Amino acid sequence: MLSFFPSPDTFLVEEIPAYTPSGAGEHTFVWIEKRSLTTLDAVNRLARRLGIESREIGYAGMKDRHATTRQWLSIPRVAPERALAAGDDEMRVLEAACHGNKLRVGHLRGNRFEVVVTGLSTDDERDALTERLSKLAVNGLPNRYGDQRFGMRADNTERGLAILRGEHKERDHRRRRLLLSAVQSAVFNQFLALREGAGQLRQVLTGDVLQKSDSGGVFITEDPTTDQKRLDAGELIVTGPMPGGWAREPPPGTEAREIEERALAHVGVSRDELASAGHDLPGTRRPLLVPVTLDPPAVIAVPTHGDAVRLRFRLPAGTYATVLIEALGVTVDTPRLPLSV
Fold first, then answer.
1. Which of 34, 94, 156, 187 could hold 151 in an S-S bridge, CB 3.0 to 4.6 Å?
2. Which domain holds residue 161?
3. Buried b or exposed e, range 190-207, using 16+ CB within 10 angstroms
4. How many domains does one find in the chain?
């Protein structure tokens, strides 16, 4: 059986930043490498050592605990020399430079991954795995949220619904937003599953909210036949709902709207409930398919383990490496923990 067991030795995640520090400004950007720590673990350690509040430290995305990960953080009013000395054996500060603004969630282009897959008993199995990976690079990856998104006990959606309905109060702002967005994620996953089951991930339906591949701009299709040709040419992508206070929605009575309503009903939430969260849940759209970029050589034999290979690929921000690995027919053997976003 093909398996992936995430650990600091089998899983490397490296952030691809949207920009690099300018060298001037009141914030210090630090490039850290951490092992067996969540992003918030690293943030809290730095905050304690530098004598600042953890909420003042910025990050572009959450990175996995069961991995070796590299990412940028921003720290206000701390000299680069002092920041460089704030690491330890589990969290090294590799670089530090000044910049003018705080790093915010989403300020990244994507992530590079290296994943060790074991259980390959024959050359044919390795060839088949390589072929499946190549097909994903050509056709794109269904952009499902991984199980990690829903918490160790898989109850983040239920807890988010309780917050929406006033049945639970969450004082930690970051935690509140995480739980609320799990409800959005559940709606998106169900919409994706319905479209995928009907063979409609690459089909333009009436009312679809489409995204331009070059600019990222979104619009509602008015001519599905013409837009289908643009989608086939790689110019457009079908998006799914992350409903909240504001987001483009398919018009009532359209095919896309009907599927969204089924997804909302499956999760047990209404558009009005999600909109009631206001700024904590602004709403957006998420592509149903995302590109997979292979870093050659994409499949490398692991000399010390004859049944193992290392896969090397890049994914856009917000896409889960575990979803790609499962799409390859590989079993992910790990507890459910809050991992990357």
1. 156
2. 142-289
3. bbbebbeeeebbeebbbb
4. 2
Describe the chain by its helix, strand, coil percentages, rounded to 5. Answer: 35, 25, 40
| Per-residue pLDDT tens digits of the chain, which is 341 residues long | 999 999 999 999 999 999 999 999 999 999 999 999 999 999 999 999 999 999 999 999 999 899 999 999 999 999 999 999 999 999 999 999 999 999 999 999 999 999 999 999 999 999 999 999 999 999 999 999 998 889 878 899 999 999 999 999 998 887 898 999 999 999 999 999 999 999 999 999 999 999 999 999 999 999 999 999 999 999 999 999 999 988 899 999 999 999 999 999 999 999 999 999 888 899 999 999 999 999 999 999 998 888 999 999 999 999 999 999 999 999 998 654 433 33
Q: Does 172 lie in the same domain as 37?
A: no
CA atoms within 13 A on the CB side of 13: 33
Catalytic residue positions, numbered: 64
DSSP one-letter code for 118: B
- What are the structure tokens assigned to 111, written together? 């992530």
Distance CA 149, CA 162 (A): 17
My answer on whether 147 and 276 are in the same domain is yes
